[in-house]
Design a protein that fits this description.
By secondary structure, this protein is an alpha/beta fold. Helix content is about 45%, strand content about 15%. It contains twelve helices and eleven strands. A hairpin with a 2-residue loop joins β10 and β11. The radius of gyration is 19 Å and the shape is globular. This is Amidohydrolase. Keywords: Hydrolase, Lyase.
Length: about 325
């Protein structure tokens, strides 16, 4: 098996939310660069602060720290919102942003005065997608939640989902018919991709189709400008591998140019840097064992054991570096 530092890599899905350098020192140790994704999460620093942190710490310990901005949904139902949003995006790109993220608040929390939910394919967002397609600006999409969120706890496929949604019933969509259904989010995203075939749209979290590789395959075959990232969904790949390892290997072989590695690690300023570092090291090393070895592995996320995929170096380099460089235009 190749050592984890065999070649330069990119963790293309992190959240650099703390004014400290621990993530970059870890990245230097493990031969990683990073892409931090600015997001409108209420608990995060403001999106402007997130961008400033990325700019401030770029290059520390010799590590490239790229960043992606996000579309601001403030005032989205007001006249002229789309034009203002496009101007903000232009400014962020001129400052160095490598793409634009659309988060799950579109579809899961933003509501019109009549109570209906704003969905990704709604008219308010259409001018923004038209601009991003015309300019060939990478778009990142996180739609909805894992499908487990819409299942009873006992039917969920990975432990982290069972633990989270059993402990947070207010976010367990199985209990909340008043919110859009899982497929509403998927179909809304797919309508955007059909309307804008030239849009470079990175489907985060396995395009929110982590539960079924056939569904991911169908989208990748239908939309040639759609790659996917693996952030926080590798445990679902463990589940699929335990069921049919060869199918997972074939998936990576077929779509080796369309899969991007990322962890979704959050450098939470309220957590100790030592704890964050331990978490990140565990993710990087266990993920590497899964992709690069053929050892028999176990994970607390799934009950059966499974063998690593033992992917060839050519595919590993694409997943861990060159796909992120190509799809995000990273220098």
């Amino acid at each position: 098996m190749l050592p984890i530092d065999a070649f330069p890599k990119i963790d293309a899905h992190v959240h650099f939310n703390a004014d400290r350098t621990n993530l970059l020192e870890m990245a230097s140790k493990f031969n990683f660069s990073m892409l931090t994704i600015n997001t409108e999460v209420p608990e995060f620093p403001s999106v402007d602060e997130q961008m400033e942190l990325a700019q401030k710490h770029q290059g520390h310990a010799g590590v490239d720290l790229f960043y992606v901005c996000t579309v601001s949904t403030e005032g989205i139902f007001e006249k002229g919102w789309a034009e203002r949003a496009i101007q903000k995006i232009k400014h962020k790109l001129s400052e160095g942003a490598r793409g634009v993220k659309f988060w799950k608040n579109i579809g899961m929390s933003i509501q019109r005065p009549d109570g209906s939910f704003l969905m990704l394919d709604n008219p308010e967002l259409e001018p923004v997608f038209a601009y991003l397609e015309e300019q060939q600006i990478p778009v990142l999409g996180h739609q909805g939640e894992p499908r487990n969120c819409w299942l009873p706890v006992e039917e969920m496929t990975v432990k982290s989902d069972r633990d989270y949604f059993s402990g947070h019933p207010e976010y367990h969509m199985y209990k909340h018919d008043e919110y859009p259904d899982y497929w509403d989010h998927i179909e809304s995203r797919d309508k955007v991709l059909s309307r804008h075939p030239g849009l470079r749209f990175i489907g985060l979290h396995l395009a929110s189709l982590e539960w079924n590789l056939d569904e991911v395959t169908e989208r990748l075959e239908t939309y040639p400008n759609l790659p996917v990232d693996l952030a926080e969904r590798i445990s679902h790949l463990y589940y699929h591998t335990a069921e049919n390892r060869q199918k997972v290997i074939d998936f990576f072989d077929t779509f080796q140019d369309r899969i991007i590695y990322g962890t979704d690690i959050i450098n939470d300023p309220s957590a100790s840097p030592e704890a964050i570092n331990r978490d990140l090291e565990k993710r990087w090393t266990t993920h590497w064992d899964f992709f690069a070895s053929d050892r028999e592995l176990e994970s607390p996320q799934v009950e059966p054991s499974f063998r690593g995929l033992d992917l060839p170096r050519t595919i590993l380099e694409k997943i861990y570096r060159t796909n992120a460089q190509d799809w995000y235009h990273l220098d």
